[in-house]
Specification:
Elements: H1 5-10, E1 16-18, H2 27-35, E2 40-43, H3 49-62, E3 67-72, H4 78-87, E4 92-96, H5 101-109, E5 113-118, H6 121-130, E6 135-138, E7 144-145, H7 151-161, E8 166-169, H8 175-184, E9 188-191, H9 205-213, E10 219-222, E11 230-233, H10 236-246
Parallel strand pairs: 1-9, 2-3, 3-4, 4-5, 5-6, 6-8, 8-9
Antiparallel strand pairs: 7-11, 10-11
Helix pairs in contact: 2-3
């Protein structure tokens, strides 16, 4: 495995970050990933502050390796979570679904590395100006909340536009994806969906089986009419929801 600037920045062996999946990326999964040499991530999601504190503390008990906290900035309690990260001594923060600008000064004063997930070149440039340490450029192939630009076209454009390190995300699941991301100009990758089927992941076995048996056409994107597209597994509920969107219900 080749080393990269991301390994040096984050203090990890492999240039890989585990995606911050709400209610899924907990202490057990994050610590296991960190112990394996990548960067494990606890996802705050919409969880209450006390749960987040306990998961951070539990992760510290389970690993001495670096790990991060993912903060979804759409959460109305984002201000509280931003402060919790400082109080609990988190060293790496990954943000999504919003602009972390108002927190960056506080985090940098506490020597916290900040890596926002971005869906466009414009946001990458804005985040570099704001003083973040690296960006995670996520293409529309990702699961969960997504942008509309594909990973293949997004990564090289972002890499050309900024000087800080770029990690690639969206549709990456193995070494071939990592090698491709490297050739496109990324210094590492973030992978989420692949970790859903890990033994240490807390999701139900039926959910894991759906992921394992999924094909290239097994997902759909909902939420486009509201401006918040989300990629999900295609099932009856997803199809019904999409029909409601088409009827503007």
């Amino acid at each position: 495995m080749f080393k990269s600037i991301i390994c040096e920045l984050l203090g990890i062996k492999y240039p890989l970050i585990q995606g911050g999946m709400a209610w899924i990326a907990d202490a057990e999964l994050a610590s296991s990933v960190s112990n394996a040499g990548a960067l494990g991530v606890v996802a705050a999601g919409y969880a209450p502050g006390e749960w987040i504190k306990e998961e951070i503390r539990k992760t510290k008990r389970l690993t001495e390796k670096p790990f991060g906290l993912n903060i979804m900035l759409l959460n109305p309690n984002a201000d509280e979570i931003a402060r919790i990260a400082v109080q609990e001594g988190v060293k790496v923060i990954i943000t999504g679904a919003g602009n972390p600008g108002k927190y960056i000064e506080m985090w940098k004063e506490n020597n916290i590395l900040v890596l926002p997930v971005i869906p466009s070149v414009a946001l990458a440039v804005r985040m570099e100006r704001a003083g973040v340490d690296a960006v995670i450029a996520e293409g529309g192939e990702a699961g969960g909340h997504v942008g509309e630009t594909t990973t293949m076209s997004l990564i090289p454009q972002v890499a050309d536009a900024i000087k800080i390190p770029v990690l690639a995300a969206g549709g990456i699941a193995d070494g071939r994806g990592l090698a491709a991301a490297w050739m496109l100009g990324a210094s590492g990758v973030q992978i989420g969906t692949r970790f859903l089927v890990a033994y240490e992941c807390n999701v139900h076995k039926n959910y894991k089986q759906k992921i394992i048996t999924a094909r290239d056409t097994s997902t759909i994107v909902t939420g486009r009419p509201t401006g918040h597209p989300v990629r999900i597994i295609k099932n009856r509920l997803a199809r019904d929801f999409q029909q409601l969107e088409k009827r503007n219900a």
